[in-house]
Amino acid sequence: MRTDLAVIGAGPAGLAAALAAAARGVRVTLVDAGPEAGGQFYRQPAAGLGARRPGALHHQWRTWKRLREGLDRHIAAGRIVHLADHHVWCVERRSGHAPGDFAVHALLGPEQNEPAVVRATAVLLATGGYERVLPFPGWTLPGVVTAGGAQAMLKGGLVVPGQRVVVAGTGPLLLPVATGLAAAGTTVAALVESADPRLLARQARGLAAEPGKAVEAAGYGVRLLRHRVRVLVRHTVVEAHGTGRLTGVTVASLDADGRVRAGTGRRIPCDSLAVGHGMLPHTELAETLGCRVDGGRVHVDEEQRTDVPGVWAAGEATGVGGAGLALAEGHLAGRSIAARLTGARPDEHGGKRAAASRAALRRFADALDHAYPPRAHWAEQVTDETVVCRCEEVRAGAVREAVRDLGAGDPRTVKLLTRAGMGWCQGRMCGPAVAGVAGCPETVTRRPFARPVPLGVLAREPGEGQV
Amino acid sequence: MNSLRLARSRPGPAFTVTFDGREIEALPGWTVAAALWAAGITSWRTTRHEGRPRGILCGIGVCFDCLVTVNDRPNQRACLVPARPGDVIRTQEGTGHAD
């Protein structure tokens, strides 16, 4: 299959870009891993569940309806082809061909056994993000899930992890997760946030740039009150308890430096814990393409272009900032692509509003970053017995030994000595944890394959003439 | 379930799958993980080295913690694979290739 523009990811950024480009005459192929468009933010209840109020668990549903209607219109007109259930594992720049010749390699369906290739002149990476979870004793117990995971299961399957849940960690995602689970009938035993609310107050100016967000936050506050959710700020979960599955957590209060205050621990019984410590961008495809990645974000210019000609990026992949920012960035990317593919410059005046919105939302995202810093000293709570790398079952003690006794000074050496980060997830889940426990800065890891690829698929990758 | 009520869900007819020989009900559209959660099951894998129980962590296909054996095929991500009528779901022991 051959197309002008391959958009990787059908979340807010990818959809906004696809609509903006298609409206300007670009033939778009939207390649997405989900069974339906929407990404994580607009993850839809599965069709078979017959939800007549699918927006009950969502925010900005009206925006979604507008995106969905636009997508349907362009699909009907043949301007957009939507490839669902396509898990992209590599975007290849085909050297030796004319500039602007990319091959998007995907695996089909949830089983991911069959390959598919899309050839495109331009590529937009709208690959979104996933959640960072830092380890603590007991975090591998069944019943401990990521906050975003609990939300994804609720939005997509209308199922909840248990009867009595604690929501914990740090960041703005915890609020909708707690209110969503409460609305779905789960008892939310506590919302445990490590950040100091005074940091939020200090960011008042940056946060005031988006008054609508303050209204949204107030709405969560009201719902937490209505569901009688206990909110503990400057607290953290120090341990999860149970054998075979979760039976409770111990939470403790934090001092001004972010250290656990001795003697403040108390136990909260629960059968599930939804925990998250912020979001991380998916940057593997960009890294393989050779795009510049700074501090874990794909670097882009004013038009959302990466430094690789023909490759644009938008949304969380370029820095975590939420759905509103992703929509603005996607829209600007779509306009830029439509213009650049015809050798023109994008009409700056037309994109003015989206550019202003992008600037305001980026300021807002920066303010949130300062209000919800990752908790300092979290690694002190990680006992030597705590598993850090879940796939390879590497304990914190082994990581510390690699640094202390074997001379490892960076995450890669720690990995070679301990296998931490060598498992199925390729270090996606444990990367920040291993670096933190080892006390070294995180480094960019190159993953030529963005997901595991069956050897059989590689063996029969279609040759020159077949794509 | 409250969440189904909240979304005013009118699912298609429920069907049966088995988990380690026990019959459980599933709704059309559910992943294997959703069906297991709805039946109150939170772990369906034991780890390769220490035999520890695992289930859902990330819920979006990134972490590979929720691997499970479905119809004799091991290493399926329960959070991605749809449940189908008659599916034989089994706890995956280690790599899933031992038996």
UniProtKB/TrEMBL annotation, chain A:
- One Pfam family name is Pyr_redox_2
Q: Which UniProt keywords apply?
A: Oxidoreductase
Cite the FAD/NAD(P)-binding domain residue spans from the record.
4-318
The residues covered by the BFD-like [2Fe-2S]-binding domain are 387-435
- SUPFAM superfamilies noted in UniProt: FAD/NAD(P)-binding domain (SSF51905)
Annotated protein name in UniProt: NAD(P)/FAD-dependent oxidoreductase
**What is the species listed in this Swiss-Prot or TrEMBL entry?**
Streptomyces glomeratus
From TrEMBL, chain B:
Against InterPro entries, the record matches this protein to:
2Fe-2S-bd_N (IPR042204), 2Fe-2S_ferredoxin-like_sf (IPR036010)
Key words of the record:
Oxidoreductase
SUPFAM superfamilies assigned to the protein according to its UniProt record, in alphabetical order: 2Fe-2S ferredoxin-like
- Lineage: superkingdom: Bacteria
Query: What Gene3D superfamilies does this protein map onto?
Result: 2Fe-2S iron-sulphur cluster binding domain, sarcosine oxidase, alpha subunit, N-terminal domain
The reply on keyword Oxidoreductase is: yes
Write the protein's name: (2Fe-2S)-binding protein
